[in-house]
Structures are given as structure tokens and as C-alpha cells.
Amino acid sequence: MPASTAWPIILAFGLTLVFAGLVTSLSVSLLGVILAVTGSIGWFREVLPHERHESVSIVEKAAPISTSRPQVAVVEWMTQELPRARLPLEIYPISAGVKGGLAGSVAMAFLAMLYGIISRRGIWYAINVLAAGFFPSRHVPAQIGAFQWDSLLVASVVHLLLSLLVGLLYGAMLPMYPRRPILLGGVMAPIVWSGLVHSVVDLIAPPLNQRIDWTWFVLSQVGFGIVAGIVVSRQERVHTLQYFPLALRAGFEAAGAPNGDEKDRGKAR
Asked: Rounded to whole angstroms, how far apart are CA atoms 7 and 54?
């Protein structure tokens, strides 16, 4: 068998000292170079021109075979339990995420407009702030609080797209937390999302960060999460089809692919 050697460890330790000396002292790097060169030479001599081997004695010993079961257990081909099942077994359909995202977008828009009324900044304030990145010239408070048709169009598109994406995310995540769907969708996710948005906006656009009332922003996110979570969690779940071929899961018809009846007959057998 190939003989054991310690030269690779010496080489690795020498390289470690070489790089450690870059931040400590030149003498440490010099010691590392000496160890690395010594380890390389020693390692090469172990394998060149011929690999060094060592003899190992082999002792044949019959392993005793014993069992505590006097009878052979019969294993059925298919049982009711699914082996190596990937959880969750049931998920919400895509339509559930779309419905939850649309419902949450309405709730979030209502809270944003309510903030504009209470703060006396105008009912269109939150909408114009959302679209402010596309119109950097509009920085006067009077312009942000007034109605702007192009800002309304841009903000509506951005709001709907983000709401649909988050709704689809809720549809994928909520089955993993079946006991506390509202806690995840209405509290945890909005807080994490609000913190992420606050950090990004503060880094990219500091003036925009000053125009956002983050207390109301978090409240609107929580309102979105609660409404979207309730709508998604009330939808009927569907099987993940994890044991079906990819062609069937993608919606294509494939020759020789098993259907549901054949699968049920296989379970019966």
C-alpha cells in the first residue's frame, strides 16, 4: 500500500506561515518559505521517481453471521407511507399566490392613501414617492403631493408586480409553516422585508429615504402580509406531484408516462 507521509502537512504549514508573515513579520514568512520548500522536496522524493510503498500484513478472519430474527420479514413493494418524501406534500397553486398578492396590494394601497390623508401630505404622496426614482426632477413637496398621471401609472405597475411576486412567494412558503401562517406572512416577512428595503434605500437614495415615513411603511407591509396570508391560506392545496415525471409536472403529454389510475393500481397491487 502507499506509504504514509507527513510532508504535505509541513508544506501546508509553511504556506500558512508565508501568508501570515504578510501581516505580522518578515521572519515568519522566511520560516514559512523554508518549511514550504522542505515539504515540497520531501513530498517529491516520496513519489518520484517511484512511489514509496509499505507492506501490510493481511489476516483472513471469517466474520460470524448472527441474527436476532428467526423468521424472514416480508417487505411489501408499495406501502401507504411515502419513502424519502420531500415536504411539504401539498402546496398552494399559483392562483393562490396571485389572489393573495392582489388582495394584499389593495390593502397596502389603502393604508398608503390613508397615511397621506392623516399626515396632510396629500392622497397621492405615497404613490409619487414610489415613482420618485423614475422622475428625479420632482423633488418639491408640492409636486410630490399633487396628482401626476405618469407617476400613478409607473407606481401602479411597480406596485402590482412586487405584490404578485411577494404573493407567489407566500404561496410557496406558507405550506412550510402550516401552524402559524399569519405569523410568518403578517409579521416576520414584512419586518424582514422592511429592514432590507430601508438599508437599500438609505444606501442608494438618501433623499428618498428622508421622504418615507418608515412607521407607516412597516404598518402597510404588515397589512399586506396579513391580508395576503389570510387569502393564500384559505385556498385549497394541491399535491406537489413530486413522484411524477418532469414532463407531467410541466404539463406536457409524454408517451409511456404513468397517469393517476395506473399509479393507484400499482398501490393496490
From this structure: 16
User: Phi/psi zone of residue 25: left (φ > 0), alpha (ψ -120 to 50 degrees), beta?
Assistant: beta
Position 115 scores a pLDDT of: 83
Hey, what's the cell of 258? 404513468
Q: In this structure, what DSSP letter does residue 2 have?
A: B
Cα of first residue to Cα of last residue in the chain, in angstroms, is 52
Cell of 205: 437614495
Sign of CA dihedral 95, 97, 100, 105: negative
- C-alpha 90/C-alpha 239 separation (Å) is 4
Q: Furthest-apart CA pair in the chain: how many Å?
A: 93
Mean pLDDT for back-to-back runs of 10 residues, the chain (269 residues): 86 91 86 92 85 81 75 59 61 82 87 83 77 63 69 82 83 69 72 77 68 80 84 79 61 52 42
- What are the residue boundaries of the structural domains of the chain, listed by start? 7-47, 90-236
Q: Find cell 409579521 and name the residue.
A: 187
Instruction: Quickly list DSSP for 238-262.
Output: EE--TTS-HHHHTT---TT---HHH
Three-class SS state of 121:
coil
Q: Do 37 and 18 touch, CB atoms closer than 8 A? A: no
